Structure formats: structure tokens, C-alpha cells
What does this fold into?
Amino acid sequence: MSESRCSKPHLHELLGAYELGILPEEEKISLEEHILRCDECFEDLYDTAPLWHITRSRAKRKTSRGRKWYIPAIAAAVCLLAFTATFHYLSNEPATKRGRQISGSSITLIGPRGTQKETSLSFNWDSSLKASSYTLLVFDEKGDVIFSSETAQYNIEIDITREGPFEQNKTYYWKVEAKDDNGRLLSASPVSSFSIEAD
Amino acid sequence: MQKDSPFKALLECKSTDSRYETLLSLLEQRITSVARKRVPGWAVQDIVQDTLLVLLRKLSTLRSHDEILPLTFTILRNMIGNHYQGEKTEKKYRAKDFEDPAYDHLEKIETYIYQSEILELCNNLDGDFSRIVKMVLDGYSQDEITKEMGLKTKEALYSRVHRGRKLIKQALKEKNL
It folds into this structure.
């Protein structure tokens, strides 16, 4: 039996809490049974699905102690960093062939961001990974790769009049992938965007 | 005895099981209802069937039944997007692309772009909802959020979430997301 208009407003009001993942199990199961039978609730969730994705993918795994874990976790991280730095200093060894320290973290994109006025684009990132090479990938709005290049450095310069089909007033997305000696993917950066200003 | 989530049953039941068929049929009806409002009648059945086809193929790759509904919406959104994209140019994703690892890569990029815009919307929202979302992202439990907000019952929390959600829904509509 289905309902095009929700006949259970008290359940409809729980949709937000359901999306945020803060509904107790019993209420969650009742609501899910209802969602499968109610067009209005199902469609309501469909409409806000992007918000749902965020809370599902970004919410840190809940523990009974919640945020109280932060303080010891941060303290542990600081100690670990201090230990790593001291260890590398004392052993007087280059941590990577670029002389950077290894902390096992990911790649930070520095630029370009926002609107670009120059015909020369400088892609810069930072990484604490022990990577042999970095691959820069630039995507257009459809998600197609329009430019890619590999380097062992932390930057790549592109002349947009020569490389890739870059167009004015369009937004482009870019990311960097780190690979090891065997070409295996170590990590990928998040995606950043920039646009090219018209003359 | 506490009942199981229907989505858990969908994930665990065999395709020959009668409950599986019932649940799948319910899901098909709901998907059809959403598609009917968004694409012309002649395209509805194709979109529903393609969505279910991809969903069923991906079911075995899911880690939890909690992923079924969000995945259904993602596939359905892409199928509906395909329909309109296909009218103008070449189709953005074809059904076979869902099998391709490159599809997951593209999907992740789009999801990231989506998320950045929506997080910005949440941050710009004044009041309780923005605070609640931040606490959820920081891993607070329902009890902790209720306490932190100075609320006496969880129902009061649900009600604030419901009100904020309406604002976000409106903003998403205006931004065509």
C-alpha cells in the first residue's frame, strides 16, 4: 500500500534527524518501513540527498565519548610529530629525496584557486607523502580530463594558450595524485577549482 | 522482538525470497513516483529499470544497508541528469559506465563539488540547524547535541532539524542542486 501524501506527519518530521544519522535504531527502522511506502517522504529525501551525502561521508564515526577524544588524540598527534621530527633530525637522514619529513598525511592543494587572469597557470601543492611522482589532473565541467602531467616536483606550470582546451569564463577542477616508485597510487588530493577570466 | 531494517533485509535476502521481491517492488514504486515528476512519461520506465539494474549490480559491493538509499538517489539523479544531458549532447554517463572504475572517480569529483557548495549553504544558514550540522560532523551523539543546545527532549531537537532542513531544501532548489 502506498501513499502519495504523507499520512504520518510525526514520521515525516524525523527525516532530518534520519539524514543526520542521529535517530535511535528503533525509530530509524519504523521510518525506513514508512519511507518505502510513502511517496512524499521518499521524494523529500531524494530532494535533499546532497546534504545527506555530506553528513554520511564526513561525519566522524561516533563514539560514546564523542568529542572528548579530541584532546588526547591531538596531544598524541603532536607527540608523534615531535618524535618524527626529532628522529629525522637526529638520524640526519633525508626523509624523502626532497628532504621532507614523512608524516603519512595527504596532499594539500595551494593554487590556482578562484579566477585566473594570466595565460600562465601555476599549479602548486604540498605533500608530506613519500611519493616518487605526482600526477596533475585537470577536469572540465563535465568531468573529462583535459590535461594531465607528471612531475617529481610540487608544481607544474601551464601556458593555457598552448595546453589543453582552456576557455574563458569556464570553471575547471584539478587534483593531484601521488604515486610510489612502482606507479602505485599512494594518495589523491581533494578537488580544487579555478576559472579563467575573459579578456 | 525488534524488527530489522527493510534495507538490511534487502541486502541480506536472496532474490528468490518473497520479502526481497516485496521490498524491491516498493522501491520501484517510489523511484517511479520521483521519476514521473521529473522526466516525460515515455522515459520513466527506462529510467526506473536502469536505476534498479545498476543498484542491484552494486548491492553486493555495499558495506552496509545504510548505503542503499543514498546510492539509489545518486543513481537516480544521474539517470535523470543523463536524460536531459542526452537530449543536448552525448550522454554524460551510459549504463555501462557505472561498471567502470572511472565512473566512481567521476562520481567522487562531482560529489566533492556538491558537498563544498552545500557545506557553504549550511555555514551561511543562521541559527540552530547550522550548529547542529557542525556538531554532527564533529561526531556528537544525539544526546550530546540535545544537551549542548540546551534542549529538554530529543523531539525538540528533531523539530529544529526539521525546520532547518526546510530552509536547506529551499536553498538547494534555488541553486538547482
